[in-house]
Each structure stands twice: as C-alpha cells, then as structure tokens.
Specification:
Length: about 250
C-alpha cells in the first residue's frame, strides 16, 4: 500500500549550517508518528518543509505516490497537509468564524458586488466545532477571550475543516492544563479513527507521544537516528537516541 507521505533523502542548509542531512521516512494514512529530538535536531525545519514555508535543497517529498513541490502553504494545504503550530497562528482580535476562514473566506454575490457571507461562515464554524465536541459560548467574541483549550480547538477545527489527510501538530499541549491536554489527545484519536487522518506529532513529552503515536522518528543534529515502534521500545531507548547514547538496536522498525 502506498504511504500518504514519503520524505526521501531530504537535506536543508542555512548558509554553512546543515539543518537536515538526508532525512527519509514514511507515514501511512491513519498512522500517527511522533517526531522526536532535542533542540537543534531539525524538527522545526522539517515541519517548515512539509508546511510549504521552506523548500529542500536536496531530496523530495512524495504525497500519495507522486512527487510534490510545496513552495508555499497553499500548495501544502492543497496536497492535504494542515499544520497546527505551537503559537496556533490565530488572530486574537477576530472571532471564531473569522479565524476559521482566515484566508479562505466565503462570499455571496458576484464580481465587484461580492460581500462576506458571515452567516454561512458562522454556520459552518458552529457545525465544525460541534463535530469536534467543542463548546464556544460566544461565536462573535474575539478569540483573546477564549480559554487555551478553546483556542487550541479552534486551531484544530481550522486544520480539519477541509479535506486534510495529514495533520502536523507542533507541541499541541505545551501551553495547556491537564484537562485541556487530555481533550487534545481525545480529539486527535477521534480524528484518526473517524477520518483516517495521518498525524505527525512534534513533542518533547514522552507520555503525550505514547498517548497519540504508533511510531517515533528520532532526529539528532539533523540526522535521522532511528524509526522505532513504540510498543516495542522503552522511554529509555527513545531518550538514548535523542541524546546520542544509544547502543542496542532492539525495537527498530522496518
């Protein structure tokens, strides 16, 4: 079966600094992979490549069996890839529909007489959030009045509203409390089960990694130092790979 995503021998440098060096891995539809590594491992650079913010110097990104050039975020979204960044990328002065449709607004009318269809956008926003099990008391309130969990849910809703097939989550619970973090995990698990969405999770949290992911891809100083099945791999081995002290090869995934 053809994987949804194949990263093939991808390298990226900034001046004389090599951020990624020959990275290769696969991600199947419905699969969740944790991208692990310390600071400077190359995680953010890889996410930027997949999100269309950067282009690789060498190598290719293959989506559903075809090489794709992701030269901007719109092309990444058209390929089925949506990213929820750590800062959520929400506009605090806009309400929920304004953020959900930011850059993708709905209009009514035609030609120079088109105006924003606010009622349609609000209707879709309500339905999308309800589908995710999220309650936002006031749809017309600016998002700076929302709780951390509500803002996170809105970022999720924006990512999955379209035909997303791969959801990239950058430290999704870093600024959330225990209950809100648990809701994020439940939402991701539900999306995988009901929509067969693939997930690439960037996290430093080993408990979160195991709650969401099936496999971990570990980067160290721009190198891919292992892909491991989590059910066969201990936390100690993951940490050893991240820090560079790993010696044994148990649990290495094919």
């Amino acid at each position: 079966m053809t994987p949804f995503l194949e990263v093939r021998n991808v390298s990226k440098s900034f001046g004389g600094i090599a951020a990624l060096k020959g990275i290769s891995f696969e991600l199947a539809a419905g699969e969740a992979v944790a991208l692990m590594g310390g600071n400077g491992a190359g995680k953010s650079t890889l996410v930027s490549l997949l999100s269309g913010l950067l282009r690789p110097d060498i190598g290719s990104i293959c989506i559903e069996g075809a090489d794709r050039v992701l030269s901007d975020p719109q092309q990444s979204r058209e390929a089925g890839i949506e990213t929820v960044f750590q800062n959520l990328a929400l506009c605090p002065n806009l309400n929920a529909p304004g953020n959900l449709f930011l850059g993708r607004e709905l209009y009514r009318g035609f030609g120079p007489f088109k105006i924003l269809d606010r009622k349609a956008m609000e209707k879709v926003t309500v339905a999308t959030l309800q589908d995710l099990g999220v309650n936002v008391p006031d749809m017309r309130a600016p998002t700076n009045r929302f709780s951390g969990g509500q803002r996170q849910a809105l970022a999720f809703a924006r990512a999955v509203r379209g035909k997303s097939k791969l959801l990239i989550l950058d430290e999704p619970t870093a600024a959330l409390g225990v209950e809100e973090s648990a809701n994020v995990v439940k939402t991701v698990q539900r999306l995988r089960k009901e929509r067969n969405i693939a997930v690439l999770l960037i996290t430093h949290n080993l408990e979160e990694m195991r709650s969401i992911a099936d496999k971990a891809v570990v980067l160290r100083r721009g190198h891919h130092v292992g892909s491991v099945l989590l059910k066969e791999t201990s936390d100690d081995e993951i940490v050893a790979r991240i820090t560079g002290s790993f010696g044994a090869k148990a649990g290495v995934a094919a």
